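Attaching the record inline, Q. Sequence:
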Amino acid sequence: MSGARTVRAAGLLFDNDGVLVDSTAAVEGSWRAFASWYDLPAEDVLERVHGRRSRDVIAHYASRLPVAPEEAFARYIDACIREFVQVDLLPGTADLVATLPAHGWAVVTSGTKVVTQARWAAAGLPDSPVLITAEDVSAGKPKPDPYRTAAERLRIDAANCLAVEDSPAGLTSAREAGCKTLALLTTHQRGELDADLFAVDLSGVRVSDNGGFEVTVSPPTPGESGPAAE
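Structure, as predicted:
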């Protein structure tokens, strides 16, 4: 890893979508379905979903729904676990997860528990020691609650945790919780992200467990600024 940097952390906190798995097709398909049910502009809906809880996204459209937000949420979640469950592992995920111990790390997602577990099972991933989902916090990303809660569940000071994220909202959440941050350029351009460290994806990250984690990060090359703009 030329030019690699190594940092130490007592805990590792991983976002899910865009970090460990590529659920783009499932996420976009499910939200396009939601938009079609209630005659909402799909592109507007899709601009709001990254790094945010589905309940919060639906609440934004409450005044435009012909049903109660809770009914719309239930219908959306049912569609996610029945029709939009398939995801792909992002580069480096399988190798990195295989090196992690059975303690000291967590997955911190804006998704619901049932959808996250269904998609992890579909991807063939093992359960994480701690899973923080939308149901575990009163305020989702970009508020600090998700990462703060993950650190508390691990019984590790958030300042001693490294959060791995791909979205501006997620990085804001982690940073405000007090975590060190590593941004992956899987869904956003580097210029859109504020983080301590950067990597293209998890294939540029190595983790050693030596009574604490040593995380070696290979930075992007000058030509690797993130996904191409459309």
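The first strand starts at residue 5 and ends at 9. The two ends are 30 Å apart (CA to CA).

More tomorrow.
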